[in-house]
Amino acid sequence: MPATNLLDLENANIKNDNTGVLVNNYLKSNSNKNVYACGDVSSKSLPLTTLSGLQGYIVGNNILKNNSKKFSNPLVPSVVFTNPNLATVGLTEEKAKEQYNAIKVFKGDASHFYNAKKENADLYAYKIIVNDKTKVIVGAHLLSAEANECINIFSMAIHQKMTTKEFKKLIFTYPSFASDLKSMLKDSD
């Protein structure tokens, strides 16, 4: 939670709640037109460094250029930096089922893949969610030593609305954990 309770924001007519300073899409305070809020204290953010940097850029731009940029929540990958890393981006299987009529789930244990054996990794798994109608990748979840890096590739694929067929045409270095990503979509078109 944002640490705003010691700031006496009500004295400056700055409304806030447990999500932070209540702001509009320009990251300007809803209650005080002279105040902007970004990062952890913005009601439109998650406490992530990457979002804080993006919001800081937008606020700086809006102060100098009279509210010319709006903030909208981008696709944000997330990683739990354990050993192995657990990474996710896009929709979960449950959310995808709510959003699409039909989905296809590619999941499995990849501990038999060459890179897992090379690293002597006991844990290596994946779950990739695809809109079955369009074949567009909508979610990815990885557990591996390199999940923190590989999830970025799925983040780009989801952002670009790549189909499984387009994704499998990409060329990655081999042997690398990135090259394994195409194998995770082994039964796709």
In short:
Helices cover 29% and strands 19% of the residues. The protein has helices at residues 49-64, 93-99, 114-119, 147-159, 164-168, 177-183; strands at residues 16-17, 20-21, 78-80, 85-90, 103-109, 125-131, 137-144. The strands form two sheets. Strands 3-4-7-6-5 form a five-stranded antiparallel beta sheet, with helices on both faces. A two-stranded antiparallel sheet has the order 1-2.
What integer value in Å does the Rg equal?
A: 20 Å
The whole-number mean of residue pLDDT values reads 94
**Unreliable residue runs:** none
SSE order: EEHEEHEHEEHHH
* Helix amount: 25-40%
The count of strands amounts to 7
Descriptive overview:
The chain is an alpha+beta fold and 189 residues long. Helices cover 29% and strands 19% of the residues. The chain contains six helices and seven strands. It has helices at residues 49-64, 93-99, 114-119, 147-159, 164-168, 177-183; strands at residues 16-17, 20-21, 78-80, 85-90, 103-109, 125-131, 137-144. Strand 3 (78-80) and strand 4 (85-90) form a beta hairpin. The N and C termini lie far apart (44 Å).
